Amino acid sequence: MKSSEFAGSRWSLRERSQSSAMVTFHNDIKVPADLNHPDPAKQVTLPVIGAAVGTPNAPTSVHLFVGPKATDVLQSVHAMVNGKPVGPSLEPVVDLGMFGIIAKPLFLWLKWTHDHWVANWGWSIMILTIIINLALLPLRMTAMKTSLKMQKLQPKMEEIKKRYEKYPMRDPRRAQMNQEIWDLQRKEGANPVMGCLPLLLQLPFLYAFYSMLANAIELRHAPWLWIKDLSSPDPMHILPILTVATMLLMTRLTPQVGMDPTQRMMMNIMSPIMFGVFTWAAASGLALYWTVGNIIGALQQYAMNRTHLGKELREMQEKRARKKNK
């Protein structure tokens, strides 16, 4: 068991601050390297830290909790006064970081899915991922509509850029060019930020999953198919490879409007590689969430590309590509 899986706390019922004392010790002990197959010849040295608190001249009553940081257990542990529980529980000792406001309800939702729908954390993560991506579907549709508007505005935006191309990059009149482009987009209701909104909204969930998998003891040693521990990296690195492959597929299917070659390379190549490196060493449960989300997103994008809106967008892109090649 890892040290981060344990919680400890102390409540003193009879405080005698002036006469109280604490004794600590730090020692080393040897334990078998493999607890399942103890071998005296194969041992490792582990540190042991202890502490004793009391008042030498009077009785001391102390309540201690030492145990796993399981949510259900911590919620049931309170300070005791005269044999009655008082005060808050120990649940806050599970620190989910700055994204705890998302990570905590996400974990409770995941735990409910595990307890009521399917008793496997891996499949529960997949169910949660499907629901989250279905909720983001309207935003994907909005992003596609924005892409279509941006395609229609592209000729007008190019005209504005041509009027200012004679000025150097540091010329103050360049700011006026950007203002004209922004006014045009606002007038036509084409906000380029809306095209990135589905991805931006997924990032808090990604960080929340990362925090949850790092701190929730319930997912420690949780198996799924070939994976024995969803809180540890994929031992066969299948999921990180799938992460890269599915992100490349998403970039192929997603319309990319108004991007210069450098931006396109960053989105199509560098971003999948970056996420692949990240998930290579991260918890396999996180890679599972991101990969399944990419697959669902690719299916949604493929279906949207076959709609009237998607066909119109593709025709405009092909028309612009033919015009550039002339």
Question: Can you describe this structure?
Answer:
The chain is α+β, with helices and mostly antiparallel strands and 326 residues long. The chain has two domains: 3-96, no CATH class; 100-149 and 196-325, no CATH class. The protein has ten helices and six strands, in the order ββββαββααααααααα. It has helices spanning 71-75, 100-116, 121-135, 137-164, 173-187, 193-215, 238-253, 261-281, 284-305, 308-325; strands at residues 6-12, 21-32, 43-54, 62-68, 78-81, 84-89. The strands form three sheets. The protein has a two-stranded antiparallel sheet. The chain has a two-stranded antiparallel ribbon with strand order 2-3. Strands 5-6 form a two-stranded antiparallel ribbon. The protein is elongated and about 90 Å long. The termini are far apart.
Features:
326 residues, two-stranded antiparallel sheet, alpha+beta, single chain, 2 domains
